[in-house]
Each structure stands twice: as C-alpha cells, then as structure tokens.
Amino acid sequence: MPSSTLAAQNREIIAAPIEIVYDAVSSPDTQRLGYDLLDDGGSLILVRPTVEGLNKTTSKKIFNVHGTWTVPHTRELGIQFYSKFTELLEKGLIKTNRYEVLSGGLNGVSGGLERLKANEVSGTKLLVRPKETV
Fold it and tell me: Taking each helix axis from N to C terminus, what angle separates 3-13 and 28-37, rounded to the nearest 10 degrees?
C-alpha cells in the first residue's frame, strides 16, 4: 500500500493526534511516512540518519537515537542491563523480533531478497543458516 494511502487511512481510523512516531526501520520511505503521520508539535524518532529535505516545518521535531554501551557515559548502564538481560528474556519482559528461517542456507538468500523487493515481508527478520547450504 502506498504510504500516502496509509497516512490517509490512518487519519480515518485514529482521531487522536499522533504525537510520537518511533521509526525502528528509518528507511527513506518510513521516515517520510512517519513524518506525514505526525501532528504539529509531534516528534519523529529515527535510528538512522535523517533523509534530505525531511524537516519541512519547525513545528515537528526529529530526533536521531543511537544505543551503545561502548562510550564512557553509558558503560555503567550497559553493565547493569546485560547483567539482567537473560532474566528479562526468560520472564518475557523483553521479546525478540519475529523471524523466519529460510531453507537451503545461503541458497535461500535470493528468494528472500525477491520477497523483500515484492513487499511480501513485514515485521519479520529473514534468517539463513550458512551451514545448511548444500
């Protein structure tokens, strides 16, 4: 579905203003869609660099985020987080991404890429196991 259609349909369904969009993909298309969905005064949060010409108005804010534990001011937080990470997974407080294992090892990559190009994959990571290559 084109992003313009999605944005229009979203306005028909959701009456409340959209104040925050967290774009975990941050491709040029998803950045533009997220920006268009925002109401004035809203914030778009991106995990990749902002595409050229996105900030059309100063009434919407754009934030770029980057999570890392390798810089001095986040190191202690990283140590604390990773000491609890397994427990958080086991309790279901953190959930992994959905994924699909492609059969045939590396031979499955081309089929997976074709599915991505055809927009047949959404919200799912495609995984290959190289050791299964025949």
Answer: 30
Burial 7-43 (b: 16+ CB within 10 A, else e): eeeeeeeeeeeeeebebeebeeebbbbbbbbbeeebe
**Which tokens in the block code for residue 17?**
């203003």
Q: How confident is the model at residue 53 (pLDDT cuts 50, 70, 90)?
A: confident
Query: The pTM is what?
Result: 0.56
Q: Nearest to residue 108, comparing CAs of 84, 78, 134? A: 134
Decide: 62 and 55 in contact? Cβ < 8 Å: yes
d(CA 117, CA 2): 14
Residue 93 near residue 102, CB atoms below 8 Å? no
Residue 106: which residues within 8 A CB-CB, separation 6 or more? 128, 130, 133
Rounded to 5°, angle at Cα 41 from 37 and 44: 50
